[in-house]
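Hi again,

Forgot to attach this to my earlier email, sorry! This is the prediction with adenosine-5'-diphosphate bound. I've pasted everything inline since the attachment limit keeps bouncing my files.
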Amino acid sequence: MSATVEKHVFQAEVNEVLSLVVNSLYSHREVFLRELISNAADAIDQLNFRALTEHALLGDDKELRIELVRDAKANTLTIRDNGIGMTRDELIGHLGTIARSGSKKLMQALTAEQKKDIALIGQFGVGFYSSFLVADSVTVVSRKAGSDETWVWESQAKGEFEIRSGDRRTRGTDVILHLKDDAKEYAQEWPVREVVHKYSDYVRWPIRMEVERGAGDDKKVEWQTLNQARALWTRPKSEVDDAQYREFYKSLSHDWQEPLAWTHFKVEGAHELTGLLFLPTKAPFDLVDRRKGGVRLFVKRVFIMDDAQEIVPEWLRFVRGVVDSEDLPLNVSREILQKDATTRFIRKQVVGKTLSLLEELAAEGETEREVDGEQTKVRRYEQFWAEFGRMLKEGVYHDLDARDRLAKLLRFRSSHDDGWHGLADYVSRMPADQKSIYYVAADSLPTAKASPHIEALKQRGYEVMLMTDSIDEWIVDALREYADKPLVSAAKGALDLPETDAQKQKKEAQQKELAPMLERVQKALEARVKTVRVTDRLTDSPACLVSDEAGMSARQERVLREAGHDVPLQKRILELNADHAVVKKLQAIADEAQFADWSALLYDQALLAEGSLPADPAAFSRRVAALMAGT
Ligand code: ADP
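Structure tokens for the complex follow:
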């Protein structure tokens, strides 16, 4: 075979990641070993899976294992596996680019300060590139299972890598690290042993290393297995400590941060199943667009597939972990999974266990946790909600079976105080005469809080949920009620506030007395409003706009329009505050042109107060200027 050496340049994002890794002062640089061992274990998993149907792939090399080979003289540490291996093209593709979509966008979005945080770039799947935390040169020698070609990849992380053909007698991959001067300890037995123990003890394949024992003539070299080589999830909970769960999560998810929480469960009976599911602390950058889930499927300890979307509903795509089924056939494919009744059972378990974990977190008080490098007291559920609340809302919308449990897990801001509140909290605070749960939606919290629509509610001492997420109103529409209390928008329909006979009579009298004026306003604003009526929502503002009970709110319309939908303009109802000085003045205006101007002003002002823009801002400011000038 020719000894030609091809030079390739790294994709730009890889260069950025590499320069971060090479220059980083990351204090836990020993994690490189976790990342490389995790890649090796994945490669063996893949081979093991393929060998189920292609027995010949195993050949004579049946004992699947990872070997760590130290050479103190040459200053190298090799991570060797007899897994699936890589072809020439795979070496170039996998170790020269970052495949994850969106990584480019994220890299550009990160500030210089954020880029110093190597934990953040862990999200890119820097896995393999973390070799350069300890090595100044890395050689990868690989032979794909079933192929007789060996290829070598080599790089000093200086913008390019080399590819040449090589020599390796059996399938698998060697990652040879030429250790930096200050990382020579990784060619020694004890530092390597310690790191494996700390980060990779749970790895399901044996990790073996040659060690010297005895002294003088008794000195002998023997292979030892450094780990327990039993899949972590198959061990009883009592035998796994928190640190092991955390490390397992990190290697599984390639997230360099601690998980927020996890649930480890076994289901016995008609179907048997073991699962270990994690909630990340931070959402990955591509969570919203990404449709992939992060749960790996195993059948009787054999790895079957990554991202088994069939067993995890889309709205739970932030969950990471493994599910190991005793019932599915080993040759299960995506097509079989889609049809198999066991899949539905597994999916139900995944949803149920995750919801139980979330319910536990929601019921938990403050705990001591590290946030951005500092110990602080936090409520884990609030941390979770801030990162993943949106996904649960998707669940309310799409998953009828989970809706009731999810409704209890929803959190909103409220007029009660600045914290997050669940609907159950709200209901527990409702005064006896209050029949409905009230909410108002706006683009920002200050706009929601100052919304004219909630003035009368606040005056009565009714709490109002403040909804600022663009999908909130759809979620509420899907829910309709909570604990038999209807969810009522402060900006739609009639509020049906309990009123005394005196109040009722006063309103009726006002409506009657003001009828001619209401009609004049209606005429002046004919193109824009459906009707004009006396309000019971306002105390301080002169006017507000409301939608029909069954109609869309102005904000919903706007959100749809911004998303590119063609939504016809809906005429709304203009409500006037009969007790307001402006309305009283309006009544006294005889000049029709002036009356029309004032009506238009009232209307535009109502738009502004709810956070919408007047259709003709220039006309609005002209009218205000004229008013100020007294002309
Ligand atoms: P990730 O593991 O998150 O995909 P890495 O940068 O660690 O990112 O690895 C990139 C890819 O290179 C892997 O997805 C895998 O396809 C391939 N790879 C890495 N190490 C090995 C190995 N030891 N054997 C086979 N393929 C490997």
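Residues 35, 39-40, 43, 81, 83-86, 94-95, 125, 127-129, 173, 254 surround adenosine-5'-diphosphate (CB under 6 Å). The chain has a mean pLDDT of 90.

That should be everything now.

G.
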